[in-house]
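In practice, a research group might receive sequence data for several interacting partners and want a quick structural hypothesis before committing to experiments. The following worked case mirrors that situation: the sequences arrive first, and a predicted assembly follows.
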Amino acid sequence: MSDVVERFAKLGVDAAPGQEAATATDTARWEGLRRGADLVGTPVDFSHGDVNAFAPPPSAIDDFTAGVREGAEQAYTTYKGRPAILEGLAEKLADFTGSPVDPASQLIITPGTQGALFLAVASCIDFGGRVAIVDPDYFANRKIVEFFDATPVYITLDYQDTSRPAALDLRQLEAAFADGVKVFLFSNPNNPTGAVYTESDIAAIAALADRYEVTVIVDQLYSRMLFPGTDFTHLRAAGIGSHRVLTALGPSKTESLSGYRLGAAFGAPELIRRMERLQAIVSLRAAGYNQAVLASWFSEPPGWMEGRIAADQRIRDGLVSTFTAAGMHVRTTEAGSYVYPQLPEMSISVGDFIALLRVQAGVVVTPGSEFTPREDRRVRLNFSQDPDAALAAAGRIVELAQCYGTT
Amino acid sequence: MSDVVERFAKLGVDAAPGQEAATATDTARWEGLRRGADLVGTPVDFSHGDVNAFAPPPSAIDDFTAGVREGAEQAYTTYKGRPAILEGLAEKLADFTGSPVDPASQLIITPGTQGALFLAVASCIDFGGRVAIVDPDYFANRKIVEFFDATPVYITLDYQDTSRPAALDLRQLEAAFADGVKVFLFSNPNNPTGAVYTESDIAAIAALADRYEVTVIVDQLYSRMLFPGTDFTHLRAAGIGSHRVLTALGPSKTESLSGYRLGAAFGAPELIRRMERLQAIVSLRAAGYNQAVLASWFSEPPGWMEGRIAADQRIRDGLVSTFTAAGMHVRTTEAGSYVYPQLPEMSISVGDFIALLRVQAGVVVTPGSEFTPREDRRVRLNFSQDPDAALAAAGRIVELAQCYGTT
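A structural hypothesis for the assembly, expressed as tokens:
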């Protein structure tokens, strides 16, 4: 029997993206540490993308209001989602990933991609068991595993050498599988580094999962937003048994539809069946009217996605130049909207620096401690922001880090 | 360590409200059992209310689109909900329940009342522990408990004697508490019976919870919709320690806003704190734009709620008369939109009757087996429907039950 108090003690939320406003209260401490003047500029919250700078596709609100007008049929869908919407979506997801999706048995609509991840992990985890997750990776992966009294088994992703593709430690992965770990959870593109797994790593994951009969949950939230030169391999189309792979995806990031809380999971029928049962007691369904917004997903106006990627690329390049010029190690994002630069050595902790950055410079970033169990000095920035404001804010990060430097 | 397969085997969903369309496939079996002609009439789905018959307050869609126009601030709220919305809502909930609600520490906005219940139970349950729940009660209560490998301890609600108020078996409740059960979960008004707990039963629950240091989660989803002559006692205002009671409420039913998936939980600060942490990994937040719709909750146009109740009361009275005249035992609903009549003895099982009722008469009801672990012949009907269609459908239930009668 587990103890609920102990379980929640591990489930921190104060440093999680989007929570900064709720926790910025330790004013006296920061006043004591503070050095130098305020750095004035447009405030930027890099903990998530700015849907004012990158608006949702224009049809979203029209699809929503049409759903409301339609009434009962759209308000009360089955727990997996409205069948007509599942059918349209299955076809698009099959086209996108290069492998079939049966709308009746292989797809569920969820409250955001977060909802898909929670239901997916909860549907294949043994309480008290073990789950392989990547270091570094999305902050919720570890937290979901620990909430179910399970133990994360960390597999290293080497992303530091920017001269070559990021590489998963496949020997660690096989050792974990050989030792009896039956679930593997990872994001591709990797969050927070923006690295994309190579075709050969994805093929190796598929082969190992089949050999050791492991269930793999892959969060491909940013897989539509590939910068030029990036090839993306969909795990579900890489030869892995279709009953053991589940893909999570959603329109919250690239498509700026986060305010609608929509996501999808597709693949392994037995997992989908369990997720439906669990959704019935977790939140019943993704909000019915909101599901109507999925009509325009993967059907954006011509040029919309290309324009989105080109705009993000310019911001990415500006930020990477700024951090590199300041001697801060950073990998150039291959896909998605995150950079994960390393702060220089400073006379204060990373946590205090992040707080002072918010107080003194109006800039919010997410600490690396959300993504890795190791000590490091990295911070994650979502660069889907107003371009000028983002670049100026990156300059303030560099300036404030120098202000608190050890030299 | 628990086994995930075993855990999901208990988590049935096929007979749950709203799932009928997904599971109505066993045609051959019903053709074999079928007796008599089809009963023609407007199809009625009694498994949930009809938002076409009872539309949401007109301002809902305007509040939503204003939220979308506002953009980032409304899209990305903290996990508990947007602070300005929490403040307004806390005041209304305090007024309604007669006990203060601190918006900063005692309130969380959730994806529906279902979301509130799941987070609440998950926040105080020991995996493998025991939770007291009422028999009969809302179907998800048992399922949430069992999903966490915990054991339901059933407390009987006596609602059969329609000449007096329903009564909870307080000796069973005290025995469970004395035996170490530390969590009690119940709905008031009771779902599925429509009974309201007496002031003295609520006072006794409060006193027992305090004496045995039990956490109580009370689902008051239908507590605004009281038919004339019904007094409602809010547990949180009944003298119980404010740190041990959590109330769940939402605008999905009475206010017909189910398509927006909004709910709230308020009370015990430590539970709210845990629920926030858990929401961060379950679905992040109730959909941001949707939260804007809460502005009009408890602020409906003058006369709106009175009109809603009067209309529902007429349907209730029609249904109760129909079932009573046919000799089917039924309690007159005191609050909410459910009746829970008992079917007569029949030559086929209740499950088969429910399937044939759908196939032969176009009427969907929810079996009593969703609400009680005991064998009975009851079915639940949500009577927020088109009045004429509902009354005609009740007639078809009676007629078809007679058609399959034992005599």
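Before designing any experiment, note the following. The two ends of chain B are 52 Å apart (CA to CA). Chain B touches chain A through 71 residues (CB under 8 Å).
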